[in-house]
Specification:
A hairpin with a 3-residue loop joins strand 8 and strand 9. About 30% of the residues lie in helices and about 30% in strands. The protein is of the alpha+beta class and about 190 residues long. The two termini are about 20 Å apart. The strands form 2 sheets. It has a 7-stranded antiparallel β-sheet with strand order 2-1-5-8-9-4-3, with helices on both faces. A two-stranded antiparallel ribbon has the order 6-7. The protein contains 5 helices and 9 strands; from the N terminus they run αββββαβαββββαα. The structure holds flavin mononucleotide (FMN). Flavin mononucleotide binds next to strand 2, strand 4, helix 2 and helix 4.
């Protein structure tokens, strides 16, 4: 199948839009992913896996500290996506005007969100372009909102300027990822 069509199909496998926060020493940061999934069916062992590209500041912070907090967002939080998902924390303090407090792990917990999971990394998988971090939720909270923010809804609701930016940043990330993708090859 044509790679573009294949990617469109893969897009149907994306998960709700999630804000991941992390901290190292005094540096607090946040990013957006739509690659975060439930990774346990045992209610007493709540686990989730998040996929983070290797070039992001968040990757550096989570790799080094073994801690992150994942937040399901609600539909009223497009501004959180535009603040965290379009520029790196290497450029500015993205959490400066997003109300938050520190969780038990030390990671920032957004005051407003649908739900949050304060996690310790219990395993990780090198996926070439990214790392999958398996997190165990040590503390969980339910915020507000009726519906979680889904990528398809986000793409429709994003202001026009951000929609174009999303497209160009995705293309740039795909180009960067292309160079790392073949770190692992099928054996046959
Ligand atoms: C809707 C949306 C989905 C995204 N999904 C991912 C993803 O699955 N994995 C990833 O590593 N980055 C993803 N990003 C990009 C990062 O959130 C973005 O590059 C961010 O600025 C990285 O921040 P950092 O360098 O401060 O960690 C997504 C961004 C948006 C807006």
């Amino acid at each position: 199948m044509d790679p573009a069509q294949t990617y469109d199909l893969l897009r149907s496998l994306t998960t709700p839009v999630v804000a991941i926060t992390s901290v190292r020493n005094e540096k607090r940061n946040g990013m957006i992913t739509d690659g975060a999934i439930r990774a346990s069916i045992v209610p007493e062992v709540p686990r989730l896996a998040v996929q983070i590209h290797k070039w992001h500041l968040t990757h550096e912070l989570v790799s080094e500290t073994g801690r992150f907090a994942a937040h399901l967002l609600h539909r009223g939080q497009l501004d959180v996506v535009t603040k965290l998902g379009f520029a790196s924390g290497r450029e500015r303090d993205k959490l400066a005007d997003i109300p938050h407090h520190l969780g038990a792990s030390g990671c920032p917990i957004l005051d407003d969100c649908y739900a949050w999971f304060d996690c310790t990394v219990v395993n990780r998988m090198d996926a070439g372009t990214s790392t999958w971090f398996l997190g165990q939720a040590m503390d969980v909270g339910r915020g507000s909102g009726e519906a979680v923010l889904a990528p398809a809804y986000l793409r429709e609701a994003l202001p026009e300027g951000y929609r174009a930016l999303y497209g160009s940043q995705l293309a740039a990330a795909q180009e960067r990822a292309r160079q790392l993708a073949w770190l692992f090859r099928p054996s046959t």
